[in-house]
Amino acid sequence: MTQPRLDVLVVVDDDPAVHNVIRLAMGERGSSVLSYYDSSAFIEDLANIPPAVVLLDLVMPGRDGLSVQKEIVRSGLPLSVVFLSGAGQLPDAVEAMRHGAVDFLGKPFRRDALYAALARAETNLAQLATERDRRNRLQVLSRLSPREVEVLQAIAAGLQTKTIAYQLDISCRTVEMHRGNITTKLGAPLTGALLLAQEAGLLKTAA
């Protein structure tokens, strides 16, 4: 999987000046900024947002940043959150970190501090995207029956049909039937099914 790059930065803050400062800073990196001035608008559009770093204000009219963060976590989407916090909001920022935020920036913030926080968030974003891919693979593999998983694991171990049939106490014809079911259910040839299972951690690896 290609590691995510910060092509798009999402900013959720009700202060237009904050958006302008960030847009200017990110323009130097060739990144575009997706701006939301209202937390509710961001939540409504949440499902349409690609993997990205989100700069999220802690205190906004309507739903505050902590509430928005909970929606992000609940969605399971690969969005890496960096909070923006004003003076006196440190306790809330600490609470946000406990619930999965990568970092927080105090307002006003220096450009180098912004870049440093975004670098950490990019690393976190890569991890989130990798985990999402793994969950997706496992979801696809859940279409297989336990017996089909056993057959797939045996094929991955290099066993021939007769050996698989003997070990599982089934006929060779049944083994072939399971092979056909595997490719049909996963919508991929056997080599693709094996790769999918390996990437999902379903196959045993040699010590």
Automatic annotation (TrEMBL):
Coiled coil: 111-138
Domain Response regulatory: 8-122
Keyword Transcription: yes
Recorded superkingdom: Bacteria
Residue numbers bearing the 4-aspartylphosphate modification: D57
Gene3D superfamilies: 3.40.50.2300, Winged helix-like DNA-binding domain superfamily/Winged helix DNA-binding domain
Cross-referenced InterPro entries: CheY-like_superfamily (IPR011006), Sig_transdc_resp-reg_receiver (IPR001789), Tscrpt_reg_LuxR_C (IPR000792), WH-like_DNA-bd_sf (IPR036388)
Keywords recorded for this protein, A-Z: Coiled coil, DNA-binding, Phosphoprotein, Transcription, Transcription regulation
Keyword 4Fe-4S set for record: no
GO annotation terms (biological process): phosphorelay signal transduction system; regulation of DNA-templated transcription
Domain (HTH luxR-type): residue spans on this chain: 137-201
Any GO molecular function: DNA binding
PANTHER family xref list: DNA-BINDING TRANSCRIPTIONAL ACTIVATOR DEVR_DOSR (PTHR44688)
Record-given protein name: Two-component system response regulator FixJ
Organism: Brevundimonas vesicularis (Pseudomonas vesicularis)
